[in-house]
Amino acid sequence: MYIQNRRISSIFNSCSPLQNHSGLISLKPEIAYFAYTHRCVPFEKLGKNNQLCNKTKLMVRSIDIEEERAELNEWVLRSIELFENTSYLDNILAVYPLASSRPNRLESRLRRQIIDAHQARRTEELIQILKEQVKFPYDEPLWFLMKNIGSCLANNPRQRLRIAESIYALTADEVVFKLEEAPKLNTQMGPMFTVWLRENFNLLNLNEFEQSNEGVFILNSSEQDGKDFVNNVLNQNVTKRPDLVAKVNNTYIIGEAKWIGSPGGNQNKQIVEVINLCREQRGDVIRIGIIDGYPWATHNSDDGIIYEKTAVMTQESEYDLISALLLNDYLNSFL
Mind listing the pLDDT tens digit for each residue in 127-139? Predict the structure, then answer.
């Protein structure tokens, strides 16, 4: 097996332009091409300045982010510069308006009831109190069923006992703390892009949207109607309604929006999902990704270049991946 030559192959010790892979025994050599977007290296190869955890999946950059920015996709580059040169995180609040994270304080009487029932091991009383609360002290996969389905709690004594043991593994104060704990803000971000889109662009119902031929418009439809229109009328192959279904004059544009707050496995999957949507473009319908957050960062706090896969996949994509803050400019570029 031979590894395709790369301009930055010097990052690997003893790597020649075409090098026979020593791990293959008694096999005929074959040519294998490893795309940039799938090529990873050990943490140690990236130099002492990179402070990312060595368990994080890293990628070699095929484009020098400091010297070869002209090779980046135009809209990717504009998004990176927006992140680097403006009050990006302040401005993105217009799209993702995060509220302050505040604990939900319980009334003093309720706190005492929970603590008393917990300390006295009055399980039935404690579970009844917890059923009336919005949150549960820990992430219990069966609690929704136990709380909301009539017979589940009464008919499943072993599960009830298991849940009680899990609760008693916490101190009474810990139970109260978990109930009062502020909600995770990331869980509130899903619908924010859609709300922002509806408030900042012109909406048209399905028939008017299809008939329009001048201006910038966003489709106003249900999930199912939007998906059916994209698949049946625009002849696409999406499995759900895209977050963005736009029309500029006679040009249709669809896209997925993602907020990525940090690197990691699930975040990588979200980026791959967006890139795959763009890669499967068909006909005259343009596909884009609307990505915000961590993927536009190029340097860490020690000024070392970021090689984390979430960022590199986004920044070296040949497709139109943009910040939501540039969406108006992007759509107007088709006028």
Answer: 999 999 988 999 9
